[in-house]
Write a structure and sequence with these properties.
The protein is an alpha+beta fold and about 450 residues long. It has 11 helices and 18 strands.
């Protein structure tokens, strides 16, 4: 990563290690060069070596990066400085990439129609600000904006398009086949296999490999089916984490793309931002069953921090940045950059890092005890059979049982055959409701 860049409009060399950038006569220069790439001219900043010699290391090592630069923060140890990193080379999508995108659009639209959802391919909402490759609208009006980009995107572009979708009542859903893609853990996302367009367009199963997870909670005891994720044995504490379907106990079938289309539009699978227990400022993003989301909120309701009041004084652009005052280095530093070339908040992999290498759970949370509210049985109202003798005899005749066998339903209190040889504790509607809750 370089400590300087060339400004193509002003024709000046900028030294990022000095507070005035080497140009005290231009006080707004820092804000200009640190603006997101999509809000300024992409060719505003150029590699110093490329400007001086006509070529640089970015072009000599595969041509995946361009000579155009982006300025971002870099933290090494306890010191944060400004550095310049190469932007990826722009290229039009290949015919194969474009075919894959079109095939995925067709598959999403076909699945939406099969699930009884409305869909619009290439939708533009809010004057074109919110763009979706396929906009799926569920039976209840929930709108999911599927995005299947075939070109490399920046993190800022992902955030901007996701914000625009949310402002217009659309839940974005980014599909990628690259685990290092910008949407991963920055917006609602799902990862699929890198398949040829013929396989995508077919009716063959297409599984979601990452991005959909299920909640797993267990008391970590000596006889637990799952080993302790912290020490590999047991610790006596409560663990809560989000697992891929195949790693759940018992294991669950993988979610198919076609299933995700219908389940997300119906609100059965919902996006979640789960904070890390070790770093509250970092989050993992995933699609989860609505029942698992409710269970998570019930478990950690008291742990959620109160909403912070907005700070009326915006921090300075260079807050926390140090300026070592080094000499300008014209040598191209391509190869020292990481893939998060435009992200001021470097992404970390949100996984558990236990001593035994067990890293199956995302956003693993551990508590010393089970919250008391999860163990408390709600107080049940006492339901006696408040009927007259005449009503009791009529109920016995309708139920075809002895009058002494008539009693109250444990759920709703209605007269049922409760105490006879064919007696039950609850009426059929109440039993059906209990079975439905048990299946969730």
């Amino acid at each position: 990563m370089a400590n300087g860049v060339f400004h193509t409009v002003y024709g000046i060399e900028i030294n990022l290690t000095r507070p005035d950038l080497g140009h005290p006569d231009r006080p707004g220069l820092l804000a200009e060069i640190t603006a997101p790439v999509d809000r300024r001219d992409r060719e505003l900043l150029q590699c110093l070596q490329h400007h001086r010699e006509g070529r640089c290391g970015a072009e000599e090592q595969g041509g995946e990066r361009s000579p155009w630069m982006h300025v971002r923060r870099s933290t090494v140890g306890t010191r944060t400085t400004w550095v310049a990193a190469h932007l990826p080379a722009r290229r039009p999508p290949t015919a194969e990439e474009d075919d894959r995108r079109k095939a995925l659009q067709e598959r999403i639209a076909r699945a939406a129609d099969r699930h009884g959802c409305r869909y619009e391919v290439g939708a533009r909402t809010g004057g074109g600000r919110a763009r979706s490759d396929v906009l799926v609208t569920g039976p209840g009006g929930l709108r999911i904006g599927w995005a299947a980009p075939c070109a490399q995107l920046t993190a800022e572009t992902v955030r901007r398009r996701s914000r625009a979708a949310a402002e217009h009542g659309i839940v974005p859903l980014w599909v990628t086949c690259d685990e290092r893609a910008a949407p991963v853990d920055r917006a609602p996302w799902a990862r699929v296999d890198d398949l040829p367009w013929q396989r995508i367009a077919s009716r063959a199963p297409m599984a979601v490999r990452a991005g959909v997870r299920h909640l797993q909670q267990w008391k970590c005891l000596r006889g637990s089916a799952r080993a302790c994720p912290l020490n590999g044995f047991w610790c006596g504490r409560l663990h809560t984490g989000w697992y891929l379907p195949a790693l759940c106990l018992p294991s669950r079938p993988p979610t198919e793309v076609d299933e995700l289309v219908g389940a997300s539009a119906a609100g059965e699978l919902v996006p979640m931002r789960v904070p890390l227990q070790s770093d509250a400022s970092a989050v993992a993003r995933m699609w989860v069953p609505a029942a698992d989301r409710d269970r998570w909120r019930e478990t950690f309701a008291e742990d959620e921090p109160p909403a912070a009041a907005p700070d009326p004084a915006a921090p300075a652009a260079d807050a926390g940045v140090s300026y070592p005052g080094e000499e300008l280095d014209p040598v191209c530093r391509y190869g020292e950059e990481d893939f998060a070339y435009d992200d001021p908040r470097p992404r970390t992999r949100h996984r558990a890092r236990p001593r035994d290498g067990h890293a199956d759970a995302v956003a693993l949370h551990t508590r010393d005890t089970v919250p008391e509210r999860l163990l408390t049985v709600p107080r049940q109202a006492r339901r006696g059979l408040a009927v007259t003798p005449e009503q009791r005899h009529r109920a016995a005749a309708a139920l075809d049982c002895h009058v002494a066998h008539v009693g109250p339903c444990a759920g709703c209190g209605a007269p049922i055959n409760r105490y006879g040889p064919r007696g039950v504790h609850a009426c059929a509607p109440c039993r059906a409701r209990v079975r439905a809750l048990a299946r969730r």
